[in-house]
Design a protein that fits this description.
Mean pLDDT: 96
Shape: globular
Distance between the termini: 8 Å
CATH class of the largest domain: Alpha Beta
Radius of gyration: 21 Å
CATH architecture of the largest domain: 3-Layer(aba) Sandwich
Strand order of the largest sheet: 2-17-14-1-13-11-12
Oligomer: single chain
Number of domains: 2
CATH superfamily of the largest domain: Alkaline Phosphatase, subunit A
Structural class: alpha+beta
Largest sheet: 7 strands, mixed
Number of strands: 17
CATH topology of the largest domain: Alkaline Phosphatase, subunit A
Low-confidence stretches: none
Helix content: 25-40%
Length: 417
């Protein structure tokens, strides 16, 4: 068995768009380097969470071979782990969004901040918010942050609601999954206890949100943004709180291969750490070309040290959430040019190397949200003949029958190819 590169392009899948001749972005754009891979390839079209529209944590877990229903205890654990916040069992770890609210009405669930702006807000929240227990708030990328509230005399519970509209939670015993859903509310609700044992947790979190929003409203950062006509960062939204270690199996031991991960986002970094991978954290560059070059160079370096490399790319999902299918098409073409083009020089598919190209979930550019559609998967290996195309339409008609769920991808790649 040769080397393996496993690429997950966040939200790459999409639905048909009229302006693209009723095609999807992936099916519409020219992909000359992917076309080269098609000489020895096959495709799959599995579901991720059945009827539920998966968040990124569930999608990445499933792609890497972890059943989200079995392993997920709440996205917040991975988010905080990836931010080097050291979550502990009993504490509650949450994903945070910073958005904009005006007179109690939510204008946006995402306010993109510069690193300096976010670090300033992080410091102010940690220094000025007063709670009866210890907490840590940490800025992440763009509008994303992590929050850990440390357990003291009372333990915390994961049985609480999300406050970010569009994301709900579902429990499987003690395990917990977040999923996307279409909602029309334009207010940020309070945290609700879904069991009486979570009353204290909801109370503390609601105090934090109220206090943190006051700090944000008074911050010089927002005063400057208002002068410049920029979106304000004055609204805290919480989701997917976790109190338990998900205890992922060690992917290196499971498949008897040395794994590395190349990525720049906290969530995916947290999953990679929890799975036992060596992490190459490249950060995220605003310039797409620069970011893809940096990640590709890191992946090629990682290949020299590992048997398998998981490479994560973010920008397609961001474009979809903004409804910008033109930008999504551009990013896919750049992935073909920069990522696949350069990896073709480092991999030898005819000699036994493999490349997998897929996504964690489908993000509809029309709806600007995650949907529960099946995901396109390309598997390049010398064990296959020619594959005609790579896009949702082709995958739906020519999919391998033994990859029905996203959790089937990794075992198939490791055991069958």
């Amino acid at each position: 068995m040769g080397k393996t590169v496993f690429i997950i392009v966040d939200g790459m899948g999409d639905r048909r768009i009229n302006q693209l001749n009723n095609n999807t972005p992936l099916g519409y754009v020219l992909k000359p380097n992917i076309a080269t891979l098609l000489k020895e390839a096959a495709c799959a079209y599995p579901s991720v969470l059945g009827k539920l529209a998966p968040e990124s944590d569930a999608g990445v877990l499933a792609d890497l071979g972890y059943d989200p229903v079995r392993f997920s205890t709440g996205r917040g654990w991975f988010e905080c782990l990836g931010l080097d916040m050291h979550p502990r069992e009993g504490d509650i770890s949450l994903r945070v969004n910073i958005g904009e609210s005006t007179r109690g009405k939510l204008k946006s669930v995402r306010t993109y901040l510069s690193i300096d702006e976010f670090r300033t807000l992080e410091k102010e929240i940690n220094n000025k918010v007063s709670l009866p227990v210890e907490f840590e708030f940490k800025a992440g990328e763009g509008y994303r942050a992590g929050l850990i509230i440390r357990a003291k005399s009372k333990t915390f519970s994961a049985f609480i609601s999300n406050t970010q509209p569009g994301y709900a939670v579902k429990f499987f015993g003690e395990n917990k999954l977040g999923f996307a859903r279409q909602v029309k509310i334009n207010i940020v609700p309070k945290v609700k206890a879904l069991k009486s044992t979570a009353d204290y947790t909801a109370k503390i979190l609601n105090i934090f949100v109220s206090e943190a929003n006051k700090v944000l409203a008074a911050s010089q950062v927002n005063k400057e943004r208002e002068k410049e006509g920029k979106n304000l960062a004055n609204c805290i939204m919480l989701r997917d709180g976790a109190v338990k270690d998900p205890r992922l199996f060690d992917i290196n031991k499971r498949f008897n291969k040395k794994w590395s991960a190349v990525l720049g986002m906290p969530l995916e970094k947290g999953i990679a750490i929890a799975s036992g991978m060596k992490v190459f954290d490249t950060g995220e560059s605003e310039n797409v070309e620069k970011d893809l070059k940096k990640k590709t160079e890191a992946a090629i370096r990682a290949l020299q040290q590992s048997d398998c490399v998981y490479l994560h790319i973010k920008q397609t999902d961001a474009a979809s959430h903004l409804g910008n299918f033109v930008e999504k098409c551009r990013v896919i073409m750049l992935i073909d040019e920069i990522v696949i083009g350069n990896l073709l020089h480092s991999l030898d598919i005819p000699s036994g190397d493999r490349l997998v190209l897929t996504c964690d979930h489908v993000t509809s550019s029309s709806l600007k949200m995650h949907v529960n559609d099946r995901i396109p998967v390309l598997l390049a290996s010398r064990k296959f003949g020619r594959c005609g195309e790579f896009g949702e339409t082709y995958c739906s008609k020519h999919a391998l029958k033994n990859i029905k769920k996203a959790t089937d991808i990794m075992p198939f790649v490791m055991d069958k190819l």
